[in-house]
Design a protein that fits this description.
211 residues, alpha/beta, Rossmann fold, Arc Repressor Mutant, subunit A, 5-stranded parallel sheet, 8 helices, Sig_transdc_resp-reg_receiver, phosphoprotein, Tscrpt_reg_IclR_N
């Protein structure tokens, strides 16, 4: 069982109670509050692995909280909470700094799966950001770069799955190299939605000009 420290910011005490109970049932350490400043303090202290933030907050909007939290930490996973599935709201949260969003009412199976997914991606990202050249194999890096150049020539922004198919490398390996290139400002990452509908974001990549 993955040990995680998770914070929840919501003005609905019923939601706080429910998410706290769900998280504890998974063995996670849960911290819940309706005070945005308290939650920002947790982020600033580096006390959390992941933070869930309600979009509709009375004093500080969810989007504003996300912007401030992202300035405080580049590594904490930020998930927006909303009862609305409108594309513009999802886009606003993602642009403010959220990594993803969860719709209410929250179901335990979906909640746990989403948390596990982002915890795994966060570990991969952290490993990529801390990687030094000795952890990156030159031949593998060149295969990824060659694929990205090919996609750029075709004016297509590929997903990590498409890069994996193009190179014949595994998805986790491709994700690690794409995060490495992104941390070096060699690759631009963008979020898109399939069929223009909100849901889990799809990440695409573009190789920047090599000067």
């Amino acid at each position: 069982m993955t040990e995680l420290s998770i914070g929840v910011l919501d003005d609905d005490r019923g939601i706080l109670y429910t998410l706290e109970a769900m998280g504890r049932s998974q063995g996670w350490t849960m911290s819940v509050t309706s005070d945005a400043e308290v939650a920002l303090g947790w982020v600033a202290e580096g006390a959390l692995d992941l933070m869930l933030v309600d979009y509709h907050m009375p004093q500080m909007s969810g989007a504003e909280f996300l912007r401030r939290a992202r300035k405080l930490s580049k590594t904490v996973v930020l998930l927006g909470l909303t009862v609305e599935e409108r594309l513009e709201i999802a886009q606003e949260m993602l642009e403010a700094g959220a990594d993803d969003f969860v719709t209410k009412p929250v179901k335990l199976a979906d909640f746990a799966a989403r948390i596990h997914l982002h915890a795994s991606l966060a570990r991969m990202k952290e490993a990529a950001l801390s990687a030094t050249p000795k952890h990156i194999h030159h031949d593998t890096l060149e295969r990824v770069l060659a694929a990205l150049r090919s996609f750029r020539a075709r004016d297509h922004r590929p997903t990590s799955q498409e890069v994996a198919a193009e190179t014949g490398l595994s998805y986790p390996t491709v994700r690690r190299y794409l995060e490495f290139l992104s941390s070096r400002k060699q690759v631009e990452q963008a979020v898109v939605y399939q069929d223009g509908r909100p849901g889990r974001p799809l990440y695409t990549y573009r190789l920047l000009d090599e000067g």
